[in-house]
Design goal:
heterodimer, A: mainly alpha, B: four-stranded antiparallel sheet, globular
Chain lengths: ~425, ~260
């Protein structure tokens, strides 16, 4: 419940030069072998650092600059570009608002139960999300007009405003939070696809990877939950079907399912009924993720002590109410870290669709090298490195947040 | 403010049979945990069950509210026989409260939500009614100021008192205690026993599995001694502790007293 800050990173004991020298002697030059090791490893590190710096300093990054839009949104029509911007604004309001609502709830509960609570400040947000902020700045450096920068600043202000507004929402209204989340998700989708917009079949670039990740998890969650419950069912048929499904899917690589969805299944459905490739990818991803989420939830149920179920039964709660009100809330809480891990791996796995010709971020970071201007110049390192950086920032941020959440959930509970 | 008692039931004459356990066997695989148990508990009676660990005392009271299913014999609570019929089980559970050694409070709910959960979900009480009753019970067990805290913020003794209040909120006719003080630090045992004594004085029918011989002496109407899944000896505490008949009872008492 409390917002205990992660302990300050240990400050290096090096304060003055003499202490620095003492530290170096103790840790780097304590024996002839350590000295040798220090020199060799230091040399390698120096060489690698200089090479990377020289590469970055001399690299011609025009390939990124010229194709930034492809990387971000693929072939989204140029006259419709206001749509991704609007969608981003809705996402900012969603994330900021939801964060504010959660913070407000945590603050109120901490106050009622007498736990010390320190509300998040702007600096905390910057410290927590610096990789994302750095990435956005890098992306903006590649833009050639001032418009994206202005829009980004506007969206940032919107998100922060939503955060503080969410925190100020009175407790009575807060239980409508789910409605806010649903409306914002719908608004995000409609701003892209609705009212003469572009459906997801035509999406591409990072936008498609994000869509496949978020939609995949959202659709897989209820299915996975049902499978987890099915696996615990006392009806043998339900149990066998659930176990069979989970074990089959978990025994098959995702790429196999994607290939099956792209080619094998496609031939079985008549052409005019056949969903688009992206839709088939989404279905394959959903079916795949559901099995993993089912296992994650099962782990969560295993973490709920037997005594909890017994106490609930002893109080007269039915099996279903025990599940819904006692077991499930505790089980889901226990699964949050694993669920974030699942989210991260799916985010990266969505690049597999590139192999099937679906134009995601990885696809573009490959094929832009075939453009006339860049053909044969060997710029793969730059384009793949750029795509890698984006995935790394996303995954790293999520994993940091997950660790923070884990620490937070350990406090005030049990 | 006049102190209303924590529990008061003067409507039932003492002695009338309320729980009847007849020829009950219970197996865990090949191990027989209960062997031909026969026991009657009257209304407003306090029965304390003692015995070495593994003797089946916990299993016995867990059979009474069907946390364990007995294999042979019959268990009748307030005229309702426990069978596989889920409605019978639910009805019996509504009449019995249970307090566990490990408290088993719900860690994701505040103290007051722990207490009001069952009244609101099972008895369909309005939130305000359930919360008023919960506050009354918390006052009776002496910790109204902890209502908005989470179980993890409370001491063991406080948690066990909340657990008792949570059971009482369902207005049970009998309370089952499964070693309620065994997981507590010594300095917290008394605060829980005090609440139990008050309950007994209010006329609650109680079956208490415990190692607290002082409690048994002071409060019990009868003491039941179990060993190896059987009831070895039954008697009022004054006879039981001063003049035990069976060798096993004498041996057990000599070891613990």
């Amino acid at each position: 419940m409390t917002a205990t800050q992660a302990p300050e990173r240990e400050t290096a004991p090096v304060r003055s030069s003499s202490r620095g020298a003492a530290w170096a002697r103790a840790n780097l030059f304590s024996s002839w072998f350590n000295t040798l090791l220090t020199i060799v490893m230091g040399g390698i590190a120096l060489w690698a650092g200089v090479s990377i710096a020289r590469f970055l300093a001399t690299a011609d990054l025009t390939i990124i600059e010229a194709n930034l839009r492809l990387f971000m949104v693929g072939q989204f029509p140029a006259d419709q570009l206001w749509r991704p911007w609007l969608a981003t604004a809705f996402i900012a309001i969603l994330v900021g608002g939801a964060g504010g609502l959660l913070a407000g709830d945590a603050g109120q509960r901490a106050e009622e139960s007498g736990v010390p609570y320190r509300p998040t400040r702007l600096l905390d947000i910057v410290r927590r999300f610096w990789p994302i902020i750095a990435l956005v700045v890098i992306l903006l450096l590649f833009t050639t007009t001032p418009t994206p920068t202005i829009l980004t600043i506007g969206i940032t202000i919107l998100g922060l405003g939503a955060y503080y507004a969410g925190r100020a929402v009175p407790a009575g209204v807060r239980r409508w939070s789910w409605l806010f989340v649903v409306v914002m998700i719908l608004a995000t989708y409609l701003s892209l696809a609705g009212f003469g917009g572009v459906g997801w079949n035509e999406w591409g670039g990072l936008q498609l990877n994000l869509f496949l990740t978020v939609a995949g998890i959202l659709f897989a969650l209820p299915l996975g939950l049902l499978l987890a419950l099915g696996r615990r069912s006392s009806l043998p048929l339900v149990r066998w079907l659930s176990v069979g499904y989970i074990e089959f899917i978990r025994g098959v690589p995702l790429i196999t399912l994607l290939l099956a969805a792209a080619f094998a299944i496609g031939f079985l459905i008549p052409l005019d009924l056949r969903p688009s490739t992206v839709t088939r990818m989404l279905i394959a991803i959903t079916l795949f993720e559901a099995a993993y989420i089912a296992e994650v939830v099962r782990g969560g149920f295993a973490a709920v002590p037997r005594g909890q179920i017994e106490a609930s039964h002893a109080l007269g709660l039915s099996t279903w109410k025990t599940m819904r009100l006692v077991a499930l809330p505790q089980a889901l809480r226990a699964t949050i870290p694993a669920m974030v891990g699942q989210f991260i791996s799916l985010f990266k796995d969505t690049t597999l669709v590139a192999i099937l010709g679906v134009p995601d971020l990885l696809h573009y970071s490959f094929i832009v090298n075939s453009q006339d201007d860049f053909l044969g110049k060997g710029l793969f390192v730059i384009t793949l490195g750029f795509a890698g950086l984006i995935f790394w920032v996303g995954s790293y941020t999520m994993s940091r947040e997950s660790r923070r959440l884990e620490k937070k959930l350990g406090v005030g509970e049990r | 403010m006049t102190q209303t008692p924590i529990y008061s039931d003067a409507t039932q004459a003492k002695g009338e049979a309320f729980i009847e356990v007849a020829e009950v066997d219970k197996f865990f695989g090949d191990f027989q945990a209960l062997k031909n148990i026969n026991m009657k508990v009257g209304r407003r009676e306090v029965v304390v069950v003692i015995g070495p660990s593994g003797s089946g005392k916990s299993t016995l009271i867990r059979c009474i509210n069907r946390l364990e299913k007995h294999d042979n014999g019959s268990i009748v609570v307030d005229g309702i026989e426990l069978s596989d019929d889920i409605r019978n089980i639910q009805e019996v559970r509504r009449e019995t409260g249970m307090v566990f050694q490990q408290f088993n409070l719900f860690p994701h709910l505040t103290v007051i939500d722990n207490i009001t959960l069952a009244p609101r979900q099972v008895r369909r009480e309005a939130k305000a009614v359930a919360e008023a009753e919960a506050m009354r019970l918390l006052e009776r067990v002496g910790i109204p100021e902890q209502a908005r805290k989470y179980p993890g913020q409370l001491s063991g003794g406080q948690q066990q008192r909340v657990a008792i209040a949570r059971s009482l909120a369902m207005k049970p006719k009998v309370m089952l205690f499964d070693e309620p003080t065994s997981a507590l630090d010594p300095e917290m045992i008394k605060e829980v026993l005090d609440v139990m004594v008050e309950l007994a004085e209010g006329g609650m029918t109680m079956i208490v599995v415990t190692h607290e011989m002082g409690f048994a002496r002071a409060v019990a109407d009868r003491v039941v001694f179990m060993a190896d899944g059987q009831i070895v000896e039954v008697g009022p505490p004054q006879h039981f502790f001063t003049d035990p008949q069976e060798d096993r009872t004498k041996l057990f008492l000599s070891q613990i007293l």
